[in-house]
Amino acid sequence: xxxxxxxxxxxxxxxxxxxxxxxxxxxxxxxxxxxxxxxxxxxxxxxxxxxxxxxxxxxxxxxxxxxxxxxxxxxxxxxxxxxxxxxxxxxxxxxxxxxxxxxxxxxxxxxxxxxxxxxxxxxxxxxxxxxxxxxxxxxxxxxxxxxxxxxxxxxxxxxxxxxxxxxxxxxxxxxxxxxxxxxxxxxxxxxxxxxxxxxxxxxxxxxxxxxxxxxxxxxxxxxxxxxxxxxxxxxxxxxxxxxxxxxxxxxxxxxxxxxxxxxxxxxxxxxxxxxxxxxxxxxxxxxxxxxxxxxxxxxxxxxxxxxxxxxxxxxxxxxxxxxxxxxxxxxxxxxxxxxxxxxxxxxxxxxxxxxxxxxxxxxxxxxx
Length: 368
Prior knowledge:
alpha/beta
């Protein structure tokens, strides 16, 4: 009598085979396990367990011999920047620095110290209010512990000195990051899928039957991608400027410089797309390979939040990424009025990346 066929065994065999196939799929492992872990690590570094922190600096004439100065230095709510007065004033005007703190001994004997704040119109008033609250709390704790019989060890000047500064809005930070996001995605994913499909469908091979040279074939396809993405950049900047008041300091001149910067960056990013299209064995391996280059930059290059939120050792890695330098140059040109020549360092690093990327792309690119 024939043995009855086991549906359960068949089901388990299918489950086993499918599970093995899933684990052998780079895209499944990357999107299901790798990327969530990367997000957890990045946002874990951002929070860091340290709570709120603001960038402040001390005035050059600050009295450093008192306990208030030492307490402010030790407080985790303050990220103390050690820089010259001119650098601090410039940072205040841009909104990169929240306040400059000064501590001076009062003229009257035994009357303690006076803590004064200097800020600018570019800084959110809520941040300066938080600084004031933290300082008052520090003074209150010192009075209760070390000076229980004294009127107060120090007082906070209720008047905050304000210097002129251009208001740095959220869109001034977000839009450059989103434009970089768009350029990087199009340069890597767009080019990788385009040329992989052209090779897979033997379109590139058929081009050989025509009198068109290989270099012109590549340039023609690449140029169409560049034109499309430049139009996209114009739309992004146009909507940001008209609808959300994105800052273009020098108007048309700033816009044209941004377009030149975007063009240079897109050419560099497209080189990575050529690499991915050359090393990918099939279409399902393109996203994992592409994300090896794009995902770290989306998270670490100042696209969605400043890189200063990361630990110092991670900031070093952030500053090696090409998208970081695009974002920095873009924000300097659009908001601070810098020229392309002023951003020579950022553009130089982008060009170095371009040389490295295209040297690899030439080695791995395939026609068939």
